[in-house]
Amino acid sequence: MGYLQQRFGAWLAIALLLLTALFGCNNGKTFNNSNKLGISDRTSERIVIGTTSKIRTLDPADANEFFISNVFYNTLERLYTYKEGSNEIVPQLATEMPKVSDDGLTYTVPVRTGLKFHDRTNFNAYTMKFALERFMNSKGAPAYVLSDVIESISVPNDAELIFQLKKPLQFFPKFLAFTGAAAISPQVYKYIKDEKTGKLLFLPDKLIGTGPYQVTQYVEGSYLRLDAFPDYWGKKPVNKGVDIQFFSSNSNLLNAFKTGAVDVAFQTLTPTQVKNVENNAKQNGWAIASGQGATILYMVLNTQQAPLNDVRVRQALAAAIDRPLLQNRIFFNQREPLYSLIPSAFIESKPVFEQKYADGNGKLARQLLQEAGYSDGNPAQITIWYSPKYGGNGDLIASTLRASIQKNTGKILQIKTERVENTVGYAFLDKGVYPAYLLDWVPDILDPDNYIKPFLECEEAEGDRCKKGGSQFQGSFYNNPKMNELIASERKERDVTKRSQILQQIQEILAQDVPFIPLWQNKEYAFAQKGVEGVKIEPNQQLPYWNISK
Q: At 11, phi and psi to the nearest 5?
């Protein structure tokens, strides 16, 4: 994201080098392919997807990036998934929704049998238990998703699993729908330990599940080949396979799409490039699939550092921000204003910041700052830190945000922006170094709670300073006992109406205390060539490959 566009000649040179490498030797196999970009057997029955995303590993126990989750969505299966076209949880490898004990701690899940893994070994409840325990015990990047909530897993027989939870969690099936919490073959993913450290080892170049596609070729940084799995038990893909081509920059991806070298462009083009495709779509017959994204952009405020330790200063900053200005000027309406940490795609979302502060409300901001003891001669001073990659163009976003705040508030509030690489920023964020920081968030679980607990919960505090918990990890250090109580309540409340009321109360306190300022929510885009059908972004943000044809 945020790369400068390069000339077509530069792209062509890179493409020729890539073709040369791919036509040569790869894992002992020689390809003779004259079609498009370098994968063998690339016929009209196969779909070519281009992306700038990178794959760090294929191991579901160690991968938590967005694009690999999309690959998992199409190659692996979980006990539960999302019904196509909705956010409704439905059984996948489970046969029914779980039975829940009265105390909300025990979930009994009936499991399918008679299914085959891609290596033709058998799937059952025992193999599912192996996969989930490996996911947790390997302590990879996403392990906490399940290990934080599951106490134990038992298997009474080959068609049933019993989960014992650490605490009641009424939306637990959504955790079992996490893309990495998938069935994998125990025959391949054996427990292998490093001889020196004793740590369990991952398999970064293998992916053996039960899904509609199987991985047949993978060259890191170049391409991933998925073939339709002939023994798949469910709905068969309408294509023979999918070839995923990785590009070094979004300008290369855009050129590849414009020249027809890829059938679908997905993840990701810059806002300017998206606008370019939209403007030329009609004359070229291109199709554009878009959907409300789950990613949010926000600002975290250090509630322990002056002047932001005064809630009136935090409220003033919230009032001064003009979300629609950047929506139009920088994002070309490809991101929408966000007025709660919970995105508007969830019915529980309440636009509390819009209701309380509106946008660019300089009058209210000045009033709050004056109440806090500041004036044009004695201004409040706030430094906002950001990554140059933030939102695709951190420098432009930060400078425009600073200028608009200054214009709305005048001299009473002085904003300074500082850039830092995220690798450095994240290392010091939970240490209390930064007064304010621009961040984005991609949820692990599609539930309002995943936009609340990781932000606002404090597990351990000293006075009003959080020492351990989501708010400390995020760099806010916010602690409100009432907020902690409400979060615990919404996580176990089974009555939908009552839970929604609790979530709305949480959002109202958020807008009052302002440890975070929600800014924008993204949209996901996929672009398809003329004649390519079935490209659709699901409400769960995923792109299903099995419906794409040409």
A: -65, -40
DSSP per-residue codes, 155-196: EEETTEEEEEESS--TTHHHHTTSTTS----TTTS---B-TT
User: Parallel, antiparallel, or unpaired for β 29-30 and 25-26?
Assistant: antiparallel
How many angstroms separate the CA atoms of 133 and 148, rounded? 13
User: Are residues 364 and 281 part of one domain?
Assistant: no
pLDDT tens, position by position, 247-262: 999 999 999 999 999 9
**CATH number reported for the structural domain that contains residue 39 in this entry:** 3.40.190.10
Residue 20 located in a structural domain: yes
The whole model's pTM is what? 0.88
Residue 239 and residue 111 in one domain: no
Q: What SS3 class is residue 208?
A: coil
CA 436/CA 42 separation, integer angstroms: 49
Question: Do 434 and 478 reside in the same domain of the chain?
Answer: yes
Query: Does some domain include residue 42?
Result: yes
- Is the backbone peptide bond immediately before 268 cis, with ω within 30 degrees of 0? yes
Mean pLDDT of the chain: 92
Residue 207 is assigned to a structural domain of this protein: no
Measured CA distances, 518 to 245, 504, 514 (Å): 34, 15, 9
Residue 134 domain boundaries: 76-200
Question: How much is the pLDDT for 39?
Answer: 53
What b-and-e string marks burial along 127-150, b requiring 16 or more CB atoms within 10 Å of the CB?
bbbbbbbbbbebebbbbebbeebb
Average pLDDT over residues 417-437: 96
Instruction: Report whether pLDDT(539) > 60.
Output: yes
> 216-254: buried (b, 16+ CB within 10 Å) or exposed (e) per residue?
ebbbeebbbbbbbbeebbeeebbbebbbbbbbebbbbbb
- Segment 97-107, tens digit of pLDDT: 999 999 999 99
The reported pLDDT for the residue numbered 176 is 98
DSSP letter for 525, please.
E
| 158 shares a domain with 105 | yes
Contact 49, 225 (CB under 8 A): no
In a domain, 71, yes or no: no
pLDDT in tens, 504-529: 999 999 999 999 999 999 999 999 99
Phi, psi of 271 (to 5 degrees): -55, -40
Query: Domain tally for the chain?
Result: 3
Q: Are residues 266 and 299 in the same domain?
A: no
**CB within 8 Å of 377: residues ≥ 6 apart:** none
Q: Is the same domain home to 311 and 191?
A: no
Q: Does 416 lie in the same domain as 319?
A: yes
